[in-house]
Amino acid sequence: MATPNDIIQKAQGEGRTVLTETESKQLLKGLGIPTTEMRLAATEAEAVATAAEIGYPCVLKVSSHDITHKSDAGGVKVGLKDAAEVAAAYQAIMASCRAAYPQAVIDGVTVQDMAKPGVEVIVGMATDPQFGPVLMFGLGGVWVELLKDVSFKLVPLNRADAKAAIGDIRAARLLEGFRGSDPVDKGALEDILLRVSDFVAATPAVAEMDLNPIFAYSDGAVAVDARVILGA
Predict the structure, then answer these.
(1) Looking at residues 220-227, what average pLDDT do you find?
(2) Domain membership of residue 210 as a residue range
(3) Whether residue 134 sits in one domain with residue 50
(4) How confident is the model over 176-194, as pLDDT tens digits?
(5) Which of 118, 41, 128 is nearest to 80 (CA)?
(6) Torsion over CA: 122, 190, 223, 228 (sign)
(7) Same-domain pairing of 179 and 86
(8) Is residue 80 one of the residues assigned to a domain?
(9) Fewest CB within a 10 Å sphere: which of 47, 51, 60, 152?
């Protein structure tokens, strides 16, 4: 399996600064961060066959270097339950994305297993011109834009910093278990923060990272979507 550095060097060799979701998730796996299983399908027939192998329900997402915001382009279909739904979803994704981005090079779609719902959180990283890499933690999914409930820590983080990042958000009580829900595995979230911190501290080529959403469970956490951007 390609290492995170292999993936970055390949993109740089092709003159790209944005990794595909497939590349981003391969990179996370190389860091020991759990992600959903995903495979690239170049055609409708491949998407149907791959979905049968991965199992239902599944998710289809457009795969293109030129389309960063997949949902806005109609490039994501979730909860697909059989081959007919996968075929229809593939056709809908291609039509929508080609209409929204006529010049985009589209490799096909990624077929992914559909993770069970959990508490949605985000781990992000950006490069501050003065302080260098900064990590962000907060509520993820649509909540990150709506509530902006996030905390920031300078890289490198230690275990105490990771704990503080999680405890500093306003909705920290939600992670403790709320109205009968189980508390999330904060140790797993700390591990993700520390792995990202160690990686970006050692890899100045990375300018931005977004792991959003991460589904947090009582017994672990899994990154459902990921984006990695390299410096120009």
Answers:
(1) 94
(2) 119-230
(3) no
(4) 887 778 899 999 999 999 9
(5) 41
(6) positive
(7) no
(8) yes
(9) 152
24 contacts 228 by C-beta, under 8 angstroms: yes
Domain with residue 161: its CATH number is: 3.30.470.20
- Distance, CA of 42 to CA of 15 (rounded, Å): 22
Please list, in sequence order, all residues whose beta carbon lies within 8 angstroms of the beta carbon of residue 69, skipping any fewer than 6 positions away: none
Report if residue 3 sits inside a domain: no
Domain assignment of residue 192, yes or no: yes
| Separation between Cα atoms, residue 138 and residue 103, nearest integer Å | 35
Number of CB atoms found within 10 A of residue 138's CB: 23
* 193 and 159 in a common domain: yes
Q: pLDDT value at position 143?
A: 65
Contact 155, 135 (CB under 8 A): yes
Contact 66, 103 (CB under 8 A): yes
Domain count, the chain: 2
Cα separation of 127 and 231, whole Å? 9
Return the number of other C-beta atoms located less than 10 Å from residue 167's C-beta.
13
Q: Which of 31, 53, 76 is nearest to 225 (CA)?
A: 76
105 and 84, same domain (yes or no)? yes
Distance CA 190, CA 196 (A): 10
The reply to whether 123 and 222 lie within a common domain is yes
Q: Which amino acid is at 76?
A: V
Same domain for 93 and 193, yes or no, is no
**183 within 8 A of 155, measured Cβ to Cβ:** no
